[in-house]
Amino acid sequence: DDRNRVQELAERETSRTICWIPASLTTERLAELGKLAIIDKLLEGQRFDTHAGHLNPDDRRRAHTTLTNHRSALLAKMRGVLRQAYGLAQKQPDDVRAGYDDHLLSLTRALKPTLPIGASFAETLRSLADQMLSRQYPAHPDFDPDRKGEIVRPADVKMVLDYIRRAVESPNGRVDVDRPHRQTMRRIANPLRLGQMHEAAFVVGGHWVQHFHRKAAEEGIQGELRVTDLLRWIDTPDPHGLDPLVAQLVIAAFAEQTDRTFYRYGSELTPQPEPDRIPTDSTLREHRLPEEADWDLARQRAGALWGFQPLALRRGRVVAMFSRDVTARAAQHRPAARRLVDELERHADQLGLDPAAATGRLATARAAATLLDELTADRTPVEIVERLARAHLPGPADRVGKSISSAEKVSAALASADWANFARLELHGGRYTTEAAEILRTLRDAAREDELTTQLAPALHAADRAASALLDRVLAETSPQPVSGGRPENRQHGDLHPTPKPTVTPNGSRSVAATHIEQVMSQLRDFAKEHPDATIEVTWRVLR
């Protein structure tokens, strides 16, 4: 009757359903089954105490033990009988009625399921599910060949994708896999046809790249690809029935191999989504890459400017990472580079710098600051690479790099230098003129050279010390000294003569002994009376 009912259903409709029909039990076994049901119910909860209330405690305990043992024996026997009834064991005439063997009937006509003889009920259910799903999804990969019940976890997918990225970015599409990860790569990547995991190395494969490109060509799709189309194409010509996490791994691997980026609503997704987070309404768009010449030159300049170089492989992810590094380093050094230009321009006259010169320290500092401004502007990764490669530099890139890396130190030295001392050296006359000129010449020669050739901070410090020492000597010799006769005289240029009357000019400076400060003040007052509309700046510095 059960078989006839299933056959009638199969004639009317098709359904992904298997009916597992047992053979009937004999009358004796049905009676034992009824007895088992009664005993099992009797031993449930507090029911036994209710029904055994008329027995004394010892009899009650013996009765409970007897019933428990009887139930265990019946359970063991009925398990064997049911295995016979469901076709998992040889039928015995005393247990089941012979003559019925059509235990599995399918409402899907093409599926002819079979029973694994000798298996347990749990193993049989697993086998039937596998047969059914294999029919429904004939292309599904086997991720559990050893039948350990292992599943594909998010951590496994992330690890597989990481090795695919590394293989794609290697020159030969091959990457060594750490020993603990080899079995997982072999279990997932191989059956999913993402590549081949060998003994110790993984080689990326091209199955899905070819498949998706072929399907896109068949449907006349060019350029941008929709994720929904890719998911649909995975199941053609045969359904794979992949878990969404695994299906997105296939799409992420395809994106890596074809150097495509995820976009949504016209905007790039940043950061790029990992499997299990890829929006189904997103698209994959090919990267716009910099020209080969620009990429090579930008990498060379990055090495000269900051001491780092990306992978030589010209890929979208590598270009994006490179541009982020360049922008970050440019933002870090840009303020100091701007301060260096300001300090050099402020003291260009005293340093002997030509603001119009196309080469030299000031030109290099300006080029460096301009380059850093360009690299920190809001630009795409490709534009960053192009700006770096095509920027005009007044010399080799390592000169600009040295200017950038030393800008903080050099600008601090320029800001703290004693420019008043250098101004006094320019105005000094007499027998120390040559020495003063040599100090200034040495400093200006260093200032005109690039930092890579001559470091300016030590030159500034040396010139500052030399200027202070020279001015101290001049001050010591020009200070009035008492001589015979009590008339103050001044020893200047090695000769004794009367101290000349000091004068005040519109621009200049004076160094006098503390005892003669009133003379200078008097001259300043006279000058102020003669020029009532003038603004006078007064500074002082104690030399010793």
Protein described:
The protein is of the alpha+beta class. Helices cover 54% and strands 7% of the residues. A 4-stranded antiparallel β-sheet has the order 6-9-7-8. Strands 3-5-4 form a 3-stranded antiparallel β-sheet, covered by helices on one side. α18 (419-427) packs across α20 and α19 (433-448) packs antiparallel against α20 (456-478). Mean pLDDT is 87; it is low at 481-502.
- Content-based structural category: alpha+beta
Average pLDDT confidence is: 87
Determine the strand fraction and express it as a percent band. Answer: 5-15%
Shape: elongated
C-alpha Rg, in Å?
Answer: 47 Å
Strand order of the largest sheet: 6-9-7-8
Q: What is the number of E strands? A: 11
Sequence stretches where pLDDT stays below 50 over 5 or more residues: 481-502
> What distance lies between the first and last C-alpha atoms, to the nearest angstrom?
123 Å
Number of helices: 21
Measured as a percent range, the helix fraction is 40-55%
- Biggest beta sheet attributes: 4 strands, antiparallel
